[in-house]
Task: structure prediction
Amino acid sequence: MRVSNQLESILMEVQKPARYTGGEVNSVIKDPSKADIRFAFCFPDTYEVGMSHLGMKILYSVLNRMEGVWCERVFAPWLDMQEAMAKQSIPLYALESKDPLLDFDFIGFTLQYELSYTNVLAMLDLAGLPLRAADRGEDAPVVIAGGPCACNPEPLADFIDLFSLGEGEEALPELMELYRACQKEGAGKREFLRRAAQIPGFYVPALYDVVYQADGTIASVTARAGAPAPVEKRIIRDLDSVYYPEAFVVPYLDIVHDRAVEEIFRGCIRGCRFCQAGYIYRPVREKDPETACGQARALCEATGYDELSLSSLSTSDYTRLDGLLEGLLSWSEPEHVSLSLPSLRIDNFSSVLLEKVSRLKKSGLTFAPEAGTQRLRDVINKRLTEEDILNTCRTAFEGGYTSVKLYFMVGLPTETDEDVVGIARLAQTIVDLYYSLPAKPKGKSVQVSISVASFVPKPFTPFQWFPQNTREELRRKQRLLLDAVTTRKVSVSWHDADVSELEAVFARGDRRLGRVIEAAYRRGCKFDSWDDCLDLEKWRAAFRENGLSMDFYAHRPREYNEVLPWDLFDYKISRAFLQRENEKALAGETTPHCRESCAGCGAAAWKEGVCVENRQSGVSKKRGREVYFPSGR
Amino acid sequence: MLRALQRSGLPVWRTQGFHPHIYCTFAHPLSLGYTSSYEVMELRVTDDGLQSSEMLARLQKVCNQDIFPTAAGDAVMKINSLAFAGYELLICGGANALERIQAFFDQPSIPLERVSKKTGRVSRFDLKEKMREALAVAQGEDARIRLILPAGPKETVNPGLAAGALLRFLGREELRVQVHRFGLYDQEMNLFL
Result:
């Protein structure tokens, strides 16, 4: 029986059946008889989460533009649907064709966060595939994975045939052409993978042997069959010429980010030492405002979205933001499209920008000081003074805002109790500032919301060698902060310490963790990033069963000379630079951002973007800090 | 549908509040899981010269085949004059129970309970008094039932309630029921326009 017929009998038994039906506007339907490559693009979380992900939208369109390639979407069915599918023996299927995943040539996963790993296994299992790559035959689909977590893919090395490192818009089509050539020649999967490993940006874990020392650290990694070492990530050199989707699939149900999204640049100039994205997406490459404006307009017209969000790691660092906003507002206002600007930096949020934001959809103001004291902000290289924070809050309050949301972290390297209490003190200072302003909104109270995450050390950051605080320590610091807040005008919310600990384990994990992930999945772990699904007891049992400890991965300081699982991967961020930054962090020294001076991270090897901008071209003073506006682009 | 209207570029009227949005009303929103061949959506346009045929063509151009506009015209009736809806219930594999199905609808009274979504309060009513028409025919292995039930601002009876009671009467609660709406009517059973 076809999956589509079977589905009708179960859809009314599950929550949100529109997650499982497909048929949305702009979804791509092709004639399967004319598609020689079928690609199932899997997001290992629910439809609402996956459909919000820009990378998936981009690669879905990139692949579907190719003649003879049909890319379809697959999301992790929620628990009720998994149960219903199992009862009716319905295999995991793709939304467009409703064909089971076993009919596809490729099954591709995007790895956005570590706690989705058990869902990768669940989806392979629901598809009817053996979990381990070694157990899948020559005829089984090729299982590929990419995304930010692929910068250390080792915990999933046992399950995935090949990983895509870095940006995929150009690499994936090259891989499709290789596959097509192999099909023509009659070369099997093993040979395809051997050749795929020769394409820059692809890593085939089966071609590398890892040897461990008695203490559990890595002794050596050896490449076989001519596989490269290191394996280099891929980047898109020119964001103006690379394809960007003209249309997004428009969902029938509310998703997390239900709006048009225009990416304006990749990378970040800042170099905050805790932030993995700030390093692995280097160098900063901007899109021309005209390109961005035209793409955004086409997207809104094709989707009917009346909200447009700009996407980047730090919107206000876009060098031509004023011009871009003017361009966007020239058509968005008459066409009733509202704009939103996420990821604004607190130190370059000007009254001019506020005036523009006021013409946009008025949502809350959110900033990320990350740490409560100047000392700790210098350690993490946030390069933000208390004066910056207060000036911005003053601008916002005088502009009519009565609430601000501030993101902080606890458990940062070198953190003391004074730093933790400093978060509450800073929030109180903002409250006091509000009441001291004659121009504050009349008769309204202020609300300062503090959101506190637990620090997770990540690969390819200067903090990659640091231990994470234990859960007990994180909880003690949370209590300390709560006790330090003395007014209802300041509210505090937390990220769960259990989740952060697991994240820390898998972010810096090695191949041996594959056994643990499989054991946890067999014990019933799925949707671990969902608070109501995470079962840490099952995870602990899975670690015990495999003779491994979470402490080894999360709470152990690493020596500079230790071989790290991700040393095999070349993200053009040199270890020497990361070590220098680590040492500067311990000394409380900051590093200027990329537009001020080059810190020699290694990204200049790409010879692109900010690394080749003329830093001397223009200087302006802004609230006592130099901000450089390069010209000549 | 709001996104389809936005895609169409039609000169639709928007609310005048702080966050203006397209004014658009569905006469009687369809329940989840039901299909329909007759739904009515009311909106306002700011260009009086816009022909209905052009409006329809522009909307059809941007709509998915699964939600496809079939006609456009000036609103004739007010939403509050809506009184009935016509449904077809397809009881999958129910052809062999056709006589019992008709017997269910031919009972002198069919007591049912419904729970208010707002208050959670349970109320009892007689389906027999509410329904206008119930006719069952065989269609292959399935049974197709045509049913007219109250639907409007004054009173609505969900056909799912009738279907549930029918399956319990038959002792066949495992049977799958597909509900299709084929018409909306006023008090005099004129098609709602």
